Amino acid sequence: MYVCLCNGYRDSELRELARRGFSDAEDAFLALGDGPCCGGCLDFAQTIMDTERAQPGCPDAGEGVEDIEDKAA
Ligand code: FES
Fold it and tell me: Is the pLDDT of residue 69 over 80?
């Protein structure tokens, strides 16, 4: 489902980034291409990411933001 209508980001994309070590919705948005626009979705996006990170088996110290940004450079 779409979470961010401004950017067209889906919950599946946010969950994937949460499993890869992202904890902040705004950082996840930037990794997907663009930061928040209106910001109306951020609380919901953060809840989705927090919920995913609380799932059993989700690594607390997996690949972090810096690692992913390094690969993108
Ligand atoms: S709906 Fe996500 S920034 Fe506007």
Answer: no
The pLDDT of 5-28, averaged and rounded, is 97
Which atom of ligand 1 lies closest to the CA of 5?
Answer: 1
Domains contained in the chain, CATH given: 2-72 (1.10.10)
Contacts of 48 by beta carbon, 8 Å cutoff, 6+ apart: 3, 11, 14, 15, 18
Which of 13, 29, 11, 12 is closest to 65 using CA atoms? Answer: 29
**Residue 57's pLDDT is what?**
82
26 lines ligand 1 (CB under 6 A): no
Query: For residues 4 and 36, is the Cβ–Cβ distance under 8 A?
Result: yes
25 Cβ inside 6 Å of ligand 1: no
